[in-house]
Design goal:
single chain; alpha+beta; Heat Shock Protein 90; Ribosomal Protein S5, domain 2; Rossmann fold; 4 domains; eight-stranded mixed sheet; five-stranded mixed sheet; 21 helices; disordered N terminus; disordered C terminus
Length: 647
Amino acid sequence: MSEELELNSTQVEHEYGASEIQVLEGLEAVRKRPGMYIGSTSSSGLHHLVYEIVDNSIDEALAGYCTEITVRINPGDTITVIDNGRGIPVDIQPQTGRPALEVVYTVLHAGGKFGGGGYKVSGGLHGVGASVVNALSEWLEVQVHKDGKIYEMKFSRGDITQEMRVIGATDRTGTTVTFKPDPEMFEDTVYDYEILHKRMREQAFLNAGLRIVTEDLRPGREQRDEMCYEGGIREFVTYINRNKTPLHEQVIYMAGEREDSMAEVAMQYNDSYNEVIVSFANNIHTPEGGMHEEGFKRALTNVLNAYGRKTGILKGEDKVSGEDCREGLTCIISVKLTEAQFEGQTKAKLGNSEIRTLVNAIVSDKLEQFLEENPAVGRTILDKAMMANRAREAARRARENIRRKNALEGATLPGKLADCYERDPALTEIYIVEGDSAGGSAKQGRDSRFQAILPLWGKMLNVEKARADKVYGNDKLTPVITALGAGLGEDFDAAKLRYHKVIIMADADVDGSHIRTLLLTFFFRFMRPLIEQGYVYAAVPPLYKLVRGRTTRVAFSDEERDAVSAEMRGEDGKGKVDISRFKGLGEMDPHELWETTMNPETRTLKRITMEDAVRADEIFTLLMGEKVEPRREYIEQNAPKAMNLDY
């Protein structure tokens, strides 16, 4: 008791004064709190460094001065970004008395994006991009080709190691930046070529005619891609729809501008039941949409209803909803404006209300004109919307039936569910298990205090090829819906979820991958918040069992099998190790299943993430859609990596 009183008295005496306020000089703040500036210090933050430098080059392209950008991964995972823009200014910046190049790389909120007339429109991280990358790099070198000279400057962790100097002559203009991410700042400093290539392809689509080259020069990984799309976002839509069947050949393109703002929209319908709307503001992806998406959606619904009534396709009081109008739609919305107002630090949503008016006006005018000139396409789109309307009504009736049934039965849990005793969802997990035999082992091996088991049997519905009304009441999916307890589709409410870990446990073979993909497709299409909020996991069962005498070990890959086998043989290497491959979860006895796949202390789980909705939509369409050839190509290309997929 006396110790507690002494502690409290000490706290009272400690005053909170000016001396407690820490002032971080220069780029110290960035190194102290990197997540505030680049989102995280994980892989996404590492790749974000590249985007910030590239954004500066793209700003030059938007201003009309840059036609080519090269992004290169060098041996040692350093990055080089080269552009042929005007080159960063090298003359003396009046406020600081220092070369502008130095200011751009050492001072936060310095650059040509703050009303000084440098750029009319720009993306980037509020003008702090170059200095943030510098602060988070072990070293950074920048060369500027300008006025017939090559200027060079070097830094280390934000500090100048070589003052700006002329190192040669040149006959071109542009900026070259090379940097090495600081291992003190990042969890991992190895770059993923595909992540960078995908982002650069997106930027090439958004900036028609801009040539972007990506290169990987690391030994054994060499590859190069060159991208230039004269059709801009029209080609973006075609690319997204490449594994789908379009309902009309021509991509509908609409564009317009007002004062300092411009907007362009490209759209095409396909025969799927899903909408893909991807929006950008100043080349920055806005995953949560915003005013530009609102303007588009409102105009689309109004135009299609007005056209339907005018042509007599819609009778009397009939009308189609916004959701009906967007079923099977792929759409890219790109706006550029002088003062973009993003909501939140991560720029996920655009807040400029004037852009809603602009997009609404463009789509209302141009889409109406297109439908008048292309009545066959207009009829096809409206037929699709009306069919969606009927299916939605059927789905509504099916939902009502489920609600009434649950009310009458008291929301009876599925008979095959072995529930747990704990009732706090934050402490519970459910294993959705392929097959009754594996389900039996899992039930016996689990910790029933917090682990629930739901076995699946028979062939599951492929929701990628089914409308919503076919999903409600499906006898293979209903047990999953009821067990999770959070509803489905527009009724889904994550707050009602009965388990905060939903773990898919399937065999490590082709059939198991199929089951996983079917379940993930179902969650992605009808319970998306489940994935978005991080509740879905994939269990990782072992592939091999190794036995020597009384010692038994397991291995999760061929490499681990070889390493464990060598370790078990010992130094003499003569000991015999029996190695067998697990044919399935049902082969494991309850104790083995618990130790290898279910025990929180020893198991491996992979969390399912949704970092990129477009990529996820592509994969689900590819793997579960109608077209066979693209699926075969994907499987052939990825088969060698199949056992290492990070689901």
